[in-house]
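help with this:

***
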Amino acid sequence: MATSAIVYSTVKATASWTVNDLNQILIFGDYLYKEIDEQLPENEHGYLLISEIPHRISLFGTTVYLQRSRSLCGIIASVQLSQAATSINEAISQGFLNVTLQPPSS
């Protein structure tokens, strides 16, 4: 479904999506999953890995080329953190400490 939504976002801005758009995304996402799953040898785990999603996808009248990059990971809710990691809660808190909100200029 996420891949379908990514492709659809190239056709129509996400801010203007309607219920009908979301229904289309779900329908095409299901279709895309079935198409990919049928081409795979025994898919025992019941889900698709990122590496199993094709680099080129045609949906919604458009063709999109996906580029993969290294995954980023982090710790969300750990009591003990190594010195090399920061929890997402801490990172967000630190990020907002340096934010200065200014009223819009007229």
